[in-house]
Design brief:
Elements lengths: L4 H9 L1 H6 L39 H10 L7 E7 L5 H17 L2 E7 L1 H5 L11 E2 L11 H7 L12 H9 L6 H18 L20 E2 L11 H4 L5 E2 L2
Helix pairs in contact: 1-4, 6-7, 7-8
Length: 242
Amino acid sequence: MALDREALNDLGFSVTKLRSAGLDVKSGWNNVIPAGMTRFWLDPKSSAHGETGKFFAYNVAEAKKLLSAAGFANGFPAVWQYAGNRYGKDFNDIAEASGQYLTSLGLQMTFEVQDYNSKYITQTSIGNFKGIAFGPETTFTEAGSYPIRLYTDNPKNRGKIRDAQLAKLAVDQQSESNEQKRREMFNEIQRINAQNMYYIPSQYRAATSWVAHQPFLKNGDTFLTTGYGSPAETYPYRWKSS
């Protein structure tokens, strides 16, 4: 509740400015299932999220009440850590601004921009850190991969979360063939996470991204693929005109 998600969308993706120019910019609030995965994403602003949706709304006064109730009325010191010079300017801007929101909340933040190769990917990314880590999750092409990674004994469970209900839902959705029932499992996973905020969804990649090509690059906007298939599935179909 200390994060202004609409402002972060504007900062990272110029949503308001691009819409005012007439462009169709899609945006939302990421959940533990990202906003772009609309089939199984539960919109925090929707009535389907129920009471737990309130934990996404920007409400500094309520955030301070929660801190006080937990015994941290005067905040606490923490290291805010993320990888620099790796994911692009939009990531860096959102990472820095998110940390500043926590400073405004009253936390005593120390900012640590980590080298991706020597520290972030070898330590922080696998859960070996103290403080608060900010970073993107793998781009999965199947929604079920997110809860398996985040709530089971998967070695990439960065938060080391151990919640029996979430672990069961994560496993059970794998064998559920009824799409509506499976969707409700995902919805429940997102509600439970919101109630506890085991993982706090960030606004990185929560709006339309834009890519520009030089005129000499041909076929640059076709053969697009999701996940990590670009080098093999996309790039071979592009060429430079003479």
